[in-house]
Amino acid sequence: DSGVTQTPKHLITATGQRVTLRCSPRSGDLSVYWYQQSLDQGLQFLIQYYNGEERAKGNILERFSAQQFPDLHSELNLSSLELGDSALYFCASSVASTHSGNTIYFGEGSWLTVV
Amino acid sequence: DQQVKQNSPSLSVQEGRISILNCDYTNSMFDYFLWYKKYPAEGPTFLISISSIKDKNEDGRFTVFLNKSAKHLSLHIVPSQPGDSAVYFCAASLANQAGTALIFGKGTTLSVSS
Q1: Paired residues of B4 in beta bridges
Q2: Of A23-27, B48-52, B69-73, which gets the smallest average pLDDT?
Q3: Distance between CA atoms of residues B15 and A98, nearest Å
Q4: Any chain B CB within 8 A of the CB of A43?
Q5: Which residues contact B111 (CB under 8 A, 6 or more apart)?
Q6: Any CB–CB contact under 8 A between B95 and chain A?
């Protein structure tokens, strides 16, 4: 158990809909990262927040957005869903905002299926 | 453009033998590298890391080697065990730069047979 909690674990929704994925980081971690893993793809970095502020942006679509709340939990909002958005979405957390010897810990992921 | 490449999608090894997983990168600014292991239905778990100022880091059965001139790193598992069967991801980052994220390869599936 990494200490990173993601909900829901599985989600099936229709095209055009909007969903929200939730993440609670490890106790004491200030950074939250979101990654997407599609079939045959590695882990694609979407976005990072540190102590409530956006710190880095990766390949995140405009239809997607995220935020980190004062209690440090984070939500990833996916809207106007398309079939290609079906993927495993991982949240990860770390203590610091940089990676200098700083390990990031992953949750178990949220399986999103768009039908 | 993939900055971190794991060119072997899969590797099969017998129990007790050495497993060697390879990773190449293109960005010479990367200076911290990590290996993660992932079992089905679980999130990736940290395995071992290496800073670019080193060429080897060892932790029990796991050793990571870094060849900066070749922009290549490898993970050696000796001896391999059936429980090592998993997907292994290589990742790289720009250490000490705020707001950067780990860049992952696509992974190599290791199968260790008994």
Answers
A1: B25
A2: B48-52
A3: 37
A4: yes
A5: B10, B11, B12, B13, B85
A6: yes
Instruction: Measure Cα distances from B4 to A90, B28, B91, B93, B107 in Å.
Output: 19, 11, 7, 10, 10
Cβ-Cβ contacts under 8 Å, B6 against chain A: 42
Residue A85: what residue type? D
- Greatest CA separation for chain B: 44
Asked if A2's CB is within 8 angstroms of B100's CB, the reply is no
Torsion of Cα atoms, A41 then A43 then A45 then A48, to 10°: 160
Residue with tokens 């932790």: B59
Q: Does A109 touch chain B (CB under 8 A)?
A: yes
Q: What is the pLDDT along chain A (115 residues), one digit of tens a residue?
A: 889 999 999 999 999 999 999 999 999 999 999 999 987 677 888 999 999 999 888 889 999 999 999 999 999 999 999 999 999 999 999 887 665 556 789 999 999 999 9
